[in-house]
Amino acid sequence: MRVCVATVVHHPEDARILHRQIRALLDAGHEVTYIAPFTHCNVTPRPEVRAVDVPRAVGRRRYRAIRAARRALRRAAKESDVIVVHDIELLFALPRGRRRPPCVWDVHEDTAGALVAKQYLPEVLRRTLPPLIRRIEANAERRMRLILAEDSYQGRFDRLHPVIRNTTFVPESAPPPPGDDRIVYVGHLSEARGALELVELARRLAEHGVRMDLVGAADPGVRPVLRDAQREGLLDWFGYVPNRHALRMAEGALAGLSLLHDVPNYRQSLPTKVIEYMARGIPVITTPLPLSASLVGRIDCGVIVPFGDVDAMVQAVLRLREDPERRAAMGARGYAEALHHHNWPEHAAEFVALLEEWALAAKIASAPPPGKAVTV
Fold first, then answer.
1. Which residue in 213, 256, 279, 290 is deepest, having the highest Cβ count within 10 Å?
2. Gene3D superfamilies, alphabetically (predicted)?
């Protein structure tokens, strides 16, 4: 099977797109064309994929990226058995016509809900765009296949669609126990993701000898604050690091942080970083978003702190530091849960089988009826 995978919004090394889905397709022996913003993100494409470089859609500057993706997708459609897109923007770039291969939208964000946190948009657009986005989603449901990253996303659509959750690769052997002098955050940094609380938390913990590692790219609005904190020696900000390396950096930390704010885009999702911390055997400190709090509370693999309450965050870290047996037990419980219920290899075959089924169905539907003459 020949699969075209496309994004103009996500980083080409995005964990769900590259490290999980594309890797699963390659491991199953399929060919992959990958349309992504390699140059913009300073990424060298993997030799196993046929890479097509396009601009990245950033902020309000999106038309150039969509136009380039439209051209690339039109070419790829001629030699692909299925197309998978990861951005709502690419719904406007898909090739048209009855002879295009089946197109799949992998829905792993609540785009309308995310508008609340996009400060570069005028307030009037943040209020008026959600209904338009819902209409775009409804139209996409009528003309293409959908894969959802969360069960809760089903409520946005009229029909049921297969769910392929954002799990992670869990080490086969248990990682080292949590340490006592370092906390870590892995993922994109923004105000809505708790960047300002992270800086203040690092400031408060510095006097206690606990340092903070931040591993991830950052929105322009919080970069100056992060740079200043790093210059002061309050924390180490490593910038973007490929997922597999970033998770190894998390091993041995006292705790992993997920301080997302209470915004619509996060209320329906289980942050992947929570599962990733569990998979690396470290306790989780999370704000009380429903799915995060439910999982962490049920497994007892971390501490739930109020939104924006840095005092509570400081106390959570210090209490874990003072109790090595408790944090080791939390890390072990989290690792066991991740290994048995959130290990990507257990779900990879389901993802590949879906694409194979849809590609085969399209071939059968387009085949001439038996006995009908075919011009050659």
1. 256
2. Glycogen Phosphorylase B
Q: What angle do CA 264, 287, 296 make, to 5 degrees?
A: 110
Which contiguous run of DSSP H or E holds residue 4?
strand 2-6
Among 219, 190, 334, which residue's Cα sits nearest to residue 274? 334
- The answer to whether the beta carbons of residues 32 and 26 sit under 8 Å apart is yes
| Amino acid residing at 279 | A
Structure tokens at 145: 């296949």
Q: Please report how the helices 290-299 and 324-341 are oriented relative to each other, as an axis angle in degrees rounded to 10.
A: 110
Q: pLDDT tens for residues 225-282?
A: 999 999 999 999 999 998 889 999 999 999 999 999 998 888 888 889 999 999 999 9
Sign of the CA dihedral running 189, 194, 200, 203 = negative
The DSSP symbol for 259 reads: -
Tokens of 303: 């501490």
d(C-alpha 283, C-alpha 335), whole Å? 9
For residue 336, the cross-strand partners are none
Q: What is the pLDDT of residues 82-140, one digit of tens each?
A: 999 999 999 999 998 777 899 999 998 877 666 666 666 666 666 767 778 888 899 99
| Complete domains list, the chain, with CATH | 2-167+345-366 (3.40.50.2000), 182-341 (3.40.50.2000)
DSSP tag of 121: S
Map residue 67 onto helix, strand or coil. helix
